[in-house]
Structure formats: C-alpha cells, structure tokens
Amino acid sequence: MFKLKSIRYTIQDQIGPDYKCPICNYFGCFRTLMPSSGVRRFAQCPNCKALERHRLQYLVLTKVLETLPISSMDMLHVAPERFFKSFFSAKFGSYDTADKTRNDVDYNFGLEDIPFENERYDFIFASHVLEHIQEDWKALAEIKRILKPNGIAILPVPLVVEKTVEYPFPNPMETDHVRAPGYKDYFERYLKVFSRVEVMTSDSFPQKYQLFIYEDRSIYPTKECPLRDSMLGEKHIDSVPICYA
Length: 245
Hints:
Strand content: 25-35%
Number of helices: 4
CATH topology: Rossmann fold
Radius of gyration: 18 Å
CATH architecture: 3-Layer(aba) Sandwich
Largest sheet: 7 strands, mixed
Number of strands: 16
Number of domains: 1
Shape: globular
Structural class: alpha/beta
Distance between the termini: 32 Å
C-alpha cells in the first residue's frame, strides 16, 4: 500500500455514498477534509489516505504507462510524494528525485534552472509544483529542454478559479502559492512549450472512484485566499495534463 504524508487538515468521517479507491481497492465512504480554503467533501480514502488528485493521477499514470517500455526509461520525479515513490521506482529503468530544498532527494535545484544536459529524461512527473514558481515559463522551458525526443511530462496544478490569478507575493495560507491557476487558461502556457498537450479530467473515468473536488468556491475571496475569484457550484473537475516533447 502507498503511504501519504500526514494531511495538515482537520478530518471528519463522512456519511455519504460509497466509493472505490483505485489505488488500494477500499470500498466505502470517503472522508471530508477541512483545509483553510474551505470544506472538501468525499476527499480522502480512509484506508490509504489518497486524495482526489492522487486517485485521478494514479488512473492517468496507469493508462499512460501501460503502452510505454518503462523498464528501459529514465524518470525524474520532482517534489516526490512518498505516495508515488515506490510506484515509480519499481517500474522505471532509472529513477531520480529532485526538490529545491528537501534533503531526502537525489538532487536539489529549482525548476527555473535545471543543472542537467539536454534530453536527459524520458518521463518527468511534477505534481502541484508550478503554482509555487513565479517564473513558471522558465520552468516549463527547462522541463522541455531535458526531455528526450518523444518524452512525456505530467505537470498537474490545482485549478481553483476560472481564469488564472497571479499573486504579488506567495500566500502562506495556500502553502505559498504564487498564483491561482485557472481551468480555462492555465494549460495554454504548456501549449507554448510542448508539441502536444492532452488533458484528462475527473469525468474521464468512472464516477465510482470519486475524482471530483467537492468544495464551495462561491465563498471566495476570503481572508485566507483574498485574491481568488468566486466560482459557481460545489462539484469541480480536476485535470491532469500530459505534455509531449
């Protein structure tokens, strides 16, 4: 079973529909989380602690990797989640980890200036990283530079507003995000760098896995998230972009 680092949220058991976790095969009610950004219903598998984004990313990764010769491929995992470390390291021919400050990785650097030669990796995974980088265009260009021809980068970010909002400084209440990525426009930045971008969303897979973000975004802006724009509805899709070199 995968292990996920502790969630810095208040957690409540949720009486509601039964769902299946595609990662650990748990079947039953999922937990509600209460982060500073608001209540998230049906978010966490109580068995393996996977969140909505982890379940969606796992399904996308399984689909993408099933057709690739991954045992002979070189992979870079940025800001590696313990949740996915064992998954990747068991599959790829070579597996490297990197982070700007952590001491439990192979390399320390920022994505704006990657100290590797061109075309080093076949596959790069960096989840919820780019929303922390002010000059994200530099990071995208560097990721593209170190991908081999026909390489793939999977670069999901939290899509929390309709149109991207840039912050003047990191927001500590959003774990120092420098922007609120928008589902209508943020991935357009990827299209300026990569030859092709395929986006898989929460509704790309069966609803039994509960891959949607259930939260009330009409409350924004709030004291904790003062620059986020209000959004209608309480059920929002999540997205995983698959970027091809």
